[in-house]
Amino acid sequence: MLSHAAILLGFGLVLQTSAFGIQFTSPTTCCSLLGTEFNGESKVFSVTSTEYGSLNTYWTPAAQQTPTCIFTPADTQDVSRAVKLFTRKNCQFAIRSGGHSYNPGWAGIVNGVLISLSDIDDVTYDSGTGLASVGAGSRWTNVYEALLPYNVTVLGGRNSNLGVGGYLTGGGISFYANERGWAADNIHSVEIVLAGGKVITASRTQHSELFRCIKGGSNNYGVITKFVLETIDASNPFNGFAVDFPPTSTDSLLAGAYNYCTGGSDADPKSHIIFAAAITGNLPYRDVLLMSYNGVFDTASSSPAIRPFFDGTIPGPTVRYFASNGTIKQATDRLSVIQAPGTRYTMGTLSIYADLELFKTLRSIWQEETTSTLRAKSGFMTEFAFQPVGSKWLASSAARGGNSMGITRPFVVVWVQPRWDLAVDDAEMVAYTDRVISRCEQAAKTANKFSKFKYLNYGGRNQEIITHYGAPSVLRMQINKLRYDPLNVFGRLVPGGFKIPGF
Ligand SMILES: Cc1cc2nc3c(=O)[nH]c(=O)nc-3n(C[C@H](O)[C@H](O)[C@H](O)COP(=O)(O)OP(=O)(O)OC[C@H]3O[C@@H](n4cnc5c(N)ncnc54)[C@H](O)[C@@H]3O)c2cc1C
Ligand SMILES: *[C@@H]1O[C@H](CO)[C@@H](O)[C@H](O)[C@H]1NC(C)=O
Ligand SMILES: *[C@@H]1O[C@H](CO)[C@@H](O)[C@H](O)[C@H]1NC(C)=O
């Protein structure tokens, strides 16, 4: 905290902008001004319109909001006109791409306008440059589908129903991460609508500092309407599968996880593993590896880095394929069915440095906190997972110019994600999530294996994210905030999401 206070002292302006004290225009007035601006274009929908219900959907009903009206721009110019109006009139708004955020108010708003980007969803491919251009409101399933005829794909959601905009601005963990880094690192350029409505293109050669900031910068700089993405060859088959283990194998499985975290993912970067465990109701926990392989794959002939997960070294594996010698679209579509919309969820995250004893300790904390009272709640399920981020992943990030996240050495993303049925249980589930995270952080600190980084896309509603990118990164983000959004439109007028300290 001290270091951030120090940074902020250099920016009197920052403090002033957040203490501006300008009155917001009432959301009803904002919606009617927007209605006038887009008169006759059928792009502004009030609560009483027939379209509102189907437009007002979120992946989890736990994040459901009731915006005063919903705006569905058809293109960048529409977004620009709206942002200009919101800036001039001090109208509060939210930005939504796929609406997969777990946190209420991040991609929705109660008193304000929701910009839903879902109509900005064009996907095109330029075989000359090898770049794909993707509308920010697309879903990954459509992106994968449009690109597969060209035998290429992009780094996107492991669940194909995710939106492009939130995922990429939050970093993005894809099945190709060990080969190519964060999905955001594979952005070639963006088209972004800044405060006041100005539209610019940012890339490694144009507005390069802003470009770096938006990779992990969420909705703090503007509304991104288009992403131009580097592609990856998809002419080889793609395999996606889960491997289940009996509880008696947990200790050797965690030892295997440790090996994969500390070298395995670098030795075979075409592989990808999430080490997850789940508890459903009163049933015993289950260990489930979520895996993929980019290329022809067979358990019998797999590389030494991943063979222990199939050859009996860790006893009792059962493999379930989502895509066997198939495509990225098949695998991720299958996961979008398994993690279907419509159920209450929340999420929390921390990061650690790999350590076998700590893995065991964190798993015990998660089990202890998952009390019989919680397990008895209608529809209860909880997932706890380790996601290794290895050195090849980080080297790919660096080779592509880096991002906002400020990560310097391999680590492990940890998350807890409960699911339940009833709104009355929301607060208890959030408290449970916060408790698991806080105890795990404490244990990681005690073991001297704590990383302060927190992955934005898995951030819980009560967590600080951007602060933990570290002082140099936060400073860069603040400087560029002042340069590109000096009136803090995307902080003051867009209340939802993870914000830059001081804004
Ligand atoms: C079932 C499930 C599976 C997931 N799997 C993965 C995974 O494999 N890898 C991973 O990395 N993450 C994963 N996530 C997390 C996911 O990346 C985030 O939820 C992400 O925000 C989803 O993107 P979205 O466009 O749907 O987000 P939204 O909910 O639409 O938006 C999230 C945030 O981003 C902002 N935002 C959205 N679009 C824009 C834009 N165009 N310009 C500026 N700001 C914008 C919003 O204002 C909001 O604050 C998963 C989430 C779920 C629910
Ligand atoms: C894609 O790959 C398949 C199989 O390798 C091949 O038959 C096809 O011609 C390729 N398509 C393009 C557009 O390169
Ligand atoms: C994929 O194809 C290869 C070679 O054609 C085969 O040996 C292997 O068993 C297949 N894998 C799966 C999971 O079907």
Automatic annotation (TrEMBL):
Residues 63-234 form the FAD-binding PCMH-type domain. Residues 1-19 form the signal peptide. Pfam families: FAD_binding_4. Transmembrane segments: none annotated. The keyword Repressor does not apply. The keyword Flavoprotein applies. Keywords: FAD, Flavoprotein, Oxidoreductase, Signal. One of its GO terms (molecular function) is oxidoreductase activity. It comes from the Eukaryota. Belongs to the oxygen-dependent FAD-linked oxidoreductase family. This is FAD-binding PCMH-type domain-containing protein. The lineage of its organism: Eukaryota, Fungi, Dikarya, Ascomycota, Pezizomycotina.
